[in-house]
Amino acid sequence: QVQVVESGGGLVQAGGSLRLSCVASGTTFRFNFMGWYRQSPGKQREWVATSLSDGFTNYADSVKGRFTISRDNAKNTVSLQMNSLKPEDTAVYYCRARSPAYDYWGQGTQVTVSS
Fold first, then answer.
1. What sign for the dihedral angle of Cα 40, 16, 13, 22?
2. How far is the CA of 86 from the CAs of 16, 36, 67, 80, in angstroms?
3. d(CA 76, CA 56)
4. Which residue in 23, 10, 35, 34 sits closest to 91, CA to CA?
5. What is the model's pLDDT at position 29?
6. pLDDT band at 28 (very low <50, low <70, confident <90, very high)
7. Which of 54, 60, 84, 113 is the least crowded, having the fewest Cβ atoms under 10 Å away?
8. SS3 call for 88
9. pLDDT higher than 90, residue 82
10. Mean of all residue pLDDT scores within the chain
11. Residues with Cβ < 8 Å from 45, sequence gap 6 or more?
12. DSSP secondary structure letter of residue 75
């Protein structure tokens, strides 16, 4: 059974950095899409960053230039390096692993940025 598990969240001051990690375990299948989303209290879940198996990456405008997504296809892992964090980055961050036939989400990891 496939499990998607995030780690690395925590509390950081504005301007600081955090690195989130995600592993999709229980399968050797290579997901076409792995990415990150986030949800703040009272808001809808929003897309943050994409990593495709061919190396393509993309970012939401709100994090472009501050966040970097990286991926290890062999290990089915994806990471999100978050620099220059702002209080508005505070959210639960979710990892997603998707292919045309499968779509898995993690349980989320809390990131809190204090001002």
1. positive
2. 8, 17, 12, 15
3. 16
4. 10
5. 83
6. confident
7. 54
8. helix
9. yes
10. 96
11. 37, 38, 39, 94
12. G
